[in-house]
Amino acid sequence: METSLDSHPQDVEDESRERTPAPDEEVLTDGVHILTALLLIVALLSSIRLPFGEAALNLLLCSGFAVLYFYGSAQLPKWRESTQLLWLVGLTTLWILAMLVAPVGIYLVFSLFFLYLRVMDDVRGVASVLFATAVSVITQIPNGLTVGGVMGPAVSAAVVLAIHYAFRTMWRINREREELIDQLIATRTQLAETERAAGVVEERQRLAHEIHDTVAQGLSSIQLLLHSVERDIQGFGLPDEQTANPRRLLELARTTAAENLGETRAMIATLQPASLSETSLEGALERMSRSFAAAADVDISVIMEGQESQLPMRTETCLLRIAQSAVGNVAKHANASRCQVTVTYAPEEVRLDVVDNGEGFDPTEVEERPASLGHIGLDAMRQRAAEQGGVLEVESTPGFGTAVSVAIPVNTVTHTEATLTTTLDENPNDEEERWQA
Questions:
Q1: I want to staple 94 with a disulfide (CB 3.0 to 4.6 A). Which of 24, 65, 209, 319 is the partner?
Q2: Cα 2 from chain centroid (whole Å)
Q3: 338-345 and 299-305 strand pairing
Q4: pLDDT tens for residues 111-147?
């Protein structure tokens, strides 16, 4: 499908000449071969009424035309353009000579019309058809021009041009249709892989949240309780020899809990979306945009506005998943050429906007459909936003594109949680050091 821009022009030209002909193109070529064979038979039979010398010359010219025609037709895809043009010149010369010997040879011009347009699929082919038509008329002047003698070649040329134009249009439509089908198959494959990967990532994220809310929080609580017990022991005022063993056991328990908490957080980090664990939200959106742009041939841009701040992993994951779903809908359904993904940081909220210039739709009509006919993606995006306390809005009008917007509130507690989580993930023992301080 694709041709490298670094390819040599001659390589591209050779590739186009050696391509496999379309079925309808083969039908036209075979039809021209049959027509040429019949016309040659008629021209050869006309030798019966000619004097011996002229008959022998006509037989020689028609035989030469037949050999050159059928040999060249078989070798045509392998020849360079210059060789093809020389072949046409040879056929045209033999045709003119045969027409001068036996007027019935004029009918071979039908075959030449098709050959001109086949080899020179541009203005040169049309000019060659007009030239052959003029020659057909001029050669009749010595015997006297008639209306039929002029209209015959002219009408024949017009019919051949119309047939050629019709077939070229069919070939172009078929090629475009094949390319479109290939693009749709590639896009569907890419989107299916993306959706499967998104399902796996979503389940991993759910497990990460469950582990964070149960095991990790439980281990953190155990550490806090152990610190409280240690402070209480110190407050009793007992001699060190009496508290040495309990304090040793408490320290061992605290160390074990800290190590397990660190391993749990490492497990949570591996279960988080790889795109976010390896880069920022902007980087993850850029990567996602490049993937969909390549699959659906859409110009997708990512814009970050406002003062970027550290967001909780859940919030970033929510924004990324909603963006993936919205851009996926653009690539799959919108038939758009451009799409813009904008993330805006504000003091009290973070906003995601996905806007395209596609076909648009009626949001009310889509929401009223049965689940089997669509709108599950919109419901999933709304649910994701609601889980983070946000609201998702969809604005669209048929023929004027679509805008998907989601705003998720961000407060001081959320920022503190995000910063603290990031710090503890980097060094799980920081919590213990703060207590010892």
A1: 65
A2: 11
A3: parallel
A4: 888 888 888 888 898 888 888 888 888 888 877 777 7
Note the helical H segments in 105-239: 109-119, 123-138, 147-211, 217-235
Do 272 and 422 touch, CB atoms closer than 8 A?
no
Residue 338 forms beta bridges with which residues? 299
DSSP 3-state of 339: strand
Q: Contact at 8 Å (CB) between 248 and 230?
A: no
How, if at all, do strands 349-356 and 391-396 pair?
unpaired
Nearest one of 32, 45, 94 to 67, comparing CA atoms? 94
How many residues comprise the chain? 437
| Pick from 330, 317, 435, 316: nearest CA to 377 | 330
Which residue type occupies 369?
A: R
Stated pTM of the model: 0.41
The residue assigned the tokens 């060094």 is 427
Rounded to an integer, what distance in angstroms lies between the CA atom of residue 296 and that of residue 183?
8
Q: What is the side-by-side order of every strand in the sheet holding 402-409?
A: 299-305, 338-345, 349-356, 402-409, 391-396
Contact 431, 425 (CB under 8 A): no
Rg (CA), the chain: 40
What distance in Å separates the CA atoms of residue 30 and residue 270, rounded to the nearest whole number?
A: 64
The pLDDT score that the predictor gives to residue 426 is 44
Q: At what angle do helices 313-329 and 412-426 cross, to 10 degrees?
A: 100
DSSP 22: P
How far is residue 322's CA from residue 256's CA, in Å, rounded to a whole number? 39
Three-state SS for 213?
A: helix
CA distance 34 to 26: 12
DSSP 3-state of 405: strand
Q: Could you give the CA distance from residue 283 to residue 387 in angstroms, rounded to a whole number?
A: 24
